[in-house]
Amino acid sequence: MNTSNEASYYSRRFNRQAGAPPVFCFFSILHCNKTNTKAFLNEFPDTMKISAPGLGRRLLSMLYESLILVAVLFIASFVFHLVFRDTSSVFFRPAFQLYLLVVAGIYFTWFWTHGGQTLPMQTWKLRVISADGGRLNLKQAFVRYLFAVIGIFLFGCGILWALFDRDGLFLHDRLASTRIVKIEQ
């Protein structure tokens, strides 16, 4: 594309005038005609705008998320220990760790597929959306969670990826075709 066609494409794509600030109307990037996207559009007022959040905002949200997750896992581990009392069993520790990963997975995938926000994401005005701008489906949420766990356990390389990614996405967002956006009223 040459420069004039490229500028025209982006102004049509994001429904904005040349020289306008890079804050896009929420409805302009949701151009997909999927039914879940149409339902997603009905939840937001016309004045809602989104932009790309900074790395610091996302990391602070992750820090807050870890505090909430510790509380959720504490309650889940209490229930697990009430049900399985034999802690000396060979299979107790791996079963307990798998159980905690499943509980965390259910926590994240449920919130990501039902509104795109966990409590810390609501506090920091962040939302997870698919690459086409719609809601995450169950498969995307599961893939995002799986790659996030792998990326974090590999010395945080999935998080550090954001420093080198052209769009500033985490590795799990890139692989799951999702993105985190900052919501502005």
UniProtKB/TrEMBL annotation:
Membrane-spanning intervals of the chain: 63-84, 96-113, 142-164
Domain of life: Bacteria
Principal localisation: membrane
Residue span(s) of domain RDD: 53-176
Pfam families, alphabetized: RDD
Alphabetically ordered keywords of this record: Cell membrane, Membrane, Transmembrane, Transmembrane helix
Its membrane topology: Multi-pass membrane protein
GO cellular component: plasma membrane
InterPro entries: Pra-immunoreactive, RDD
Location in or out of the cell: Cell membrane
Name of the protein: Uncharacterized membrane protein YckC, RDD family
Organism whose genome encodes this protein: Nitrosospira multiformis
